[in-house]
Design brief:
Blueprint: E1 4-9, E2 13-19, E3 25-27, E4 32-40, E5 46-58, E6 64-69, E7 75-80, E8 89-93, E9 111-112, E10 128-136, E11 143-155, E12 159-164, E13 168-172, E14 175-186, E15 193-198, E16 204-209, E17 212-213, E18 218-225, E19 232-234, E20 237-242, E21 245-250, E22 252-256, E23 265-267, E24 272-274, E25 278-282, E26 291-297, E27 305-312, E28 316-319, E29 327-335, E30 340-342, E31 346-350, E32 352-356, E33 364-366, E34 371-379, E35 385-397, E36 403-408, E37 414-419, E38 428-437, E39 449-450, E40 466-474, E41 481-486, E42 488-492, H1 501-504, E43 507-510, E44 517-522, E45 527-534, E46 539-548, E47 550-554, E48 561-569, E49 572-580
Parallel strand pairs: 8-9, 13-22, 24-31, 38-39
Antiparallel strand pairs: 1-2, 2-11, 3-11, 4-10, 5-8, 5-11, 6-7, 6-10, 12-14, 14-18, 15-17, 15-20, 16-18, 19-22, 20-21, 23-25, 25-28, 26-27, 26-29, 29-30, 29-31, 32-42, 33-41, 34-40, 35-38, 35-41, 35-42, 36-37, 36-40, 43-44, 44-47, 45-46, 45-48, 48-49
Length: 581
């Protein structure tokens, strides 16, 4: 609901302006009706109505029919396919305007006479949901409605509106909370307003201080939740009554438990082996205001937490890069604003996986000419493939149903990921892994993982090293778009990240985990250089030591997580792991 402001007032009527908060609204390149809403919260008899500040973008304004629909369903057409071949719009409409025809391009911000008269709304009630409907009658183009507002003049009749400073409040069992309720004047109104509450559940009380106010004044609403009330979301109704008038305000109250609620962990199960692209799920607790934090550590006591995700409102989370070939522990902390509680920890192990993305060539243009468009990435680490995941493929296209997207391995194995899906939909943002949901949501822009059309298991047993190619086959002329990003996760059959433990043991790295400074020392080995890699094997930095048995360097510039430190010298090379806290 937009805030109202008095524009002007005469003895017989007053005028108010309302701006829609239901913007921007995307106008797809697919023909259809796109709507934005505006709520007028008070009753009044309309004497005059204007539609102002209609502003937005579009590839061809001549495709558009824009109309205003009242709460009762009455429709008035404002424009009907004007200014063909021009782009964008910025105008308003008033029956009394001297401008009969809209200037082209329609971007002057001027006020014109509408295609149909707005005076058909005179005598109607203001209260309710008003709709600005944009009918885009031709495929292609697209754009956005960014703003619009209504100026409405009504017959003077004193009234009031109740407004709460907070739409939702939270309270713990056996505690109180409070917020402010205001009485706003609509025209001249000075009768006392008596406050009361309805739809109050058992175990909750609602009181007002004071319980009688006038317009321009406020009352403190006090909500008390008893110890026995169940956690949940409640909707008490705050009522103001004056003479023969009344107004209501529905308040959302979230009641939370005052005793600890431990989340039950669901997935991964105890001892499960997963890829380094992890999906974690747990049972939500009963308190509606709860925020969760997922913690992953290398020890059961969580003295060395390597990943922390949160606060989260959902009872699940994805972690893109878990440390490979590790036994790890996870738990979930729940904070409902009343008490903090943690689940029991659970262990899991990761495969030896590495993530890769194209080093160049993106974004890749998909022309409006049918053809196969390709993007390549190089994997340096050799090893037998255990499994493949494509965490994301993201891009734009006029019609996704024109596309066949496949992945080709260095040995030439080709697996179709999706083909000719979601007829009439635009753009794509999704990923693929085995044993996921095979039914792709439409539009395919959820970012979720799905099972591919053909099996990724076809890559199992191949050597991962070499050039991988994502192929986008646009089967139809017209449309076009671009591939913005994609990535590939390879999990190996063996631990290709293993180190020479005997040699690595001759070096000490401290402190580990670290916040900033890292020290590397050896009693009997000479160090020539140190190379830093992220957990996927991507080289980040190289430090020259020049024949010393130790080095100290600053690690504070790196993000939290795990890293590999390769120490080189006359002995060869040894690799150690380090955690940045």
């Amino acid at each position: 609901m937009g805030d109202f402001s008095e524009v002007f007032s005469f003895g017989t009527h007053s005028c108010f302006g309302y701006a829609s908060e239901n913007v921007p609204v995307n106008i797809s390149a697919i023909s259809g009706v796109y709507s934005s809403f505006l709520e007028i919260p008070f009753e009044g008899i309309i004497q005059d109505l204007n539609v102002l500040n209609i502003e937005g973008t579009h590839g061809n304004t001549g495709q558009l029919v824009i109309s205003l629909i009242s709460p009762t369903g009455e429709e008035v057409i404002l424009i009907d396919e004007i200014c063909t071949g021009t782009q964008d719009f910025n105008f308003g409409f008033d029956d009394s305007s001297l401008l009969e025809e809209v200037d082209c391009p329609a971007t002057t911000g001027s006020i014109y006479q509408p295609n149909q008269a707005l005076d058909s709304f005179i005598g109607d009630n203001t209260e309710g949901t008003w709709t600005l409907a944009i009918a885009d009658n031709v495929n292609g183009g697209g754009g956005s409605l960014n703003n619009w507002s209504i100026e409405v003049c009504v017959a003077n009749e004193g009234s009031f509106i109740l407004t709460a400073e907070e739409a939702s409040v939270q309270v713990c069992q056996n505690q109180l909370t409070s917020f402010t309720l205001n009485a706003e004047e609509v025209f001249a109104f000075d009768d006392p307003i008596t406050l009361s509450a309805e739809n109050v559940p058992a175990g909750m009380t609602v009181s007002f201080d004071p319980f009688i106010i006038s317009t321009g004044q406020s009352s403190e609403v006090i909500i008390a939740a008893e110890a026995g009330i169940d956690p949940g979301v409640y909707l008490p109704v705050l009522v103001g009554t004056a003479a023969n008038l009344s107004d209501e305000n529905v308040q959302t109250v979230e009641v939370n438990s005052d005793t600890p609620e431990n989340s039950e962990l669901i997935s991964p199960s105890e001892g499960e082996v997963i890829s380094t692209l992890g999906f974690f799920e747990w049972e939500a607790v009963s308190s509606p205001s709860t925020l969760y934090t997922l913690e992953i550590a290398t020890d059961e006591l969580f003295l060395n937490t390597v990943i922390s995700v949160g606060p989260l409102s959902a009872a699940s989370a994805s972690v893109a890069e878990l440390p490979p070939f590790e036994t790890l522990f996870w738990r979930v902390t729940a904070d409902n604003g009343c008490v903090l509680s943690s689940s029991l920890p659970r262990s899991f192990s990761t495969l030896a996986c590495a993530n890769s993305s194209p080093a160049e060539g993106l974004p890749l243009s998909i022309l409006s000419v049918a053809g196969v468009y390709t993007s390549e990435l190089e994997i340096q680490q050799a090893g037998e493939i255990q499994s493949i995941t494509i965490p994301n493929i993201e891009g734009t296209h006029f019609s996704v149903s024109d596309l066949i997207v496949s992945l080709e391995s260095p040995t030439g194995t080709d697996v179709v990921l999706f083909s000719n899906i979601c007829d009439g939909e635009q753009d794509f943002d999704l990923g693929f892994t085995e044993a996921a949901n095979p039914l792709i949501d439409c539009p395919p822009t959820t970012g979720e993982l799905y099972s591919p059309e053909e099996s990724l298991a076809d890559f199992t047993g191949e050597d991962a090293a070499g050039t991988w190619t994502l192929k986008v086959n646009d089967t139809q002329n017209g449309g076009g778009g671009q591939l913005n990003s994609w990535s590939l996760q390879v999990c190996y059959e063996d631990n290709v990240f293993s180190t020479n433990n005997a040699l690595a043991a001759s070096f000490s790295i401290f402190p580990n985990p670290t916040n900033n400074i890292v020290n590397i020392r050896s009693e009997d080995q000479i160090i020539d250089e140190v190379v830093i890699y992220d957990i996927t094997g991507r080289k980040l930095d190289q430090l020259l030591v020049n024949g010393s048995n130790g080095i100290t360097f600053d690690f504070s510039a790196y993000a939290q997580g795990g890293y590999l430190i390769e120490i080189r010298g006359p002995f060869g090379a040894a690799t150690k792991k380090i955690i940045r806290k």
